Every structure is written in structure tokens, then in C-alpha cells.
Amino acid sequence: MQDKNTHLETSLSAETRVKLDLFSALGEAKRQLEISQALVIGKDKEIEELKAKITEVLAVCPPTSFTSTSLDHSNIHYTSKLLPQFMSEGSDDHEIPTTSWPN
């Protein structure tokens, strides 16, 4: 009977240690989750602030301020394989589209 009690006490003690370790790990995981959530919330706020700043800047900039008059774009011809409506009908030509640049 004494051996059974000793064995039972040892088993309960080991079980208690395992439970304490599990609760400790759970607490650490919760702490890490809270830290991560706080970082995500901070980044979300930062994104919203940047979006607001971009909107504000775009609202006050004239649309022509983004074009450059120093470059002559008149000789540039863009073609795309993604835009089949610009290919001549009945053409079986499947060459890779090219871009012409001025010399």
C-alpha cells in the first residue's frame, strides 16, 4: 500500500509539472500573440495615415505635374500580347511584341 501511495504521489507530481509547463507555454504564446496583434494594429494605422497623405497630395497636385516635357514620346510604340484586339484579324503571327525606342 505504501508503494502504491508513493507511486501515485510521484505520478501526480509529474503530471502537475507537465501542467505547469503547459500553462507557462500557453502564457508565453498569448503574450507573443498580443505583441504581434499590437504591431499589426500599429501598421494598419500607419497605412491609413499614409493613404490619407497620398490622397491629400494627389488632391492638390495638378494632373500635368506628373508628365515630363523633356522626353519626346511620339516615336514610342507599345504593343502587348495581352491585347489581342490590336493584332490584325486573321493573322496567325504569334511573335513576341516589341517596343520601339527612339534612337
UniProtKB/TrEMBL annotation:
Keyword set, alphabetical order: Endoplasmic reticulum, Glycoprotein, Membrane, Nucleus, Phosphoprotein, Transmembrane, Transmembrane helix
Membrane topology: Multi-pass membrane protein
InterPro entries registered for this protein in UniProt: Macoilin
Keyword Transmembrane: yes
Subcellular location: Nucleus membrane; Rough endoplasmic reticulum membrane
GO CC, alphabetical: nuclear membrane; rough endoplasmic reticulum membrane
Single GO biological process annotation from the record: neuronal signal transduction
Top-level taxon of origin: Eukaryota
Reported function: Plays a role in the regulation of neuronal activity.
The name this protein goes by in its record: Macoilin
Organism from which the protein derives: Meganyctiphanes norvegica (Northern krill)
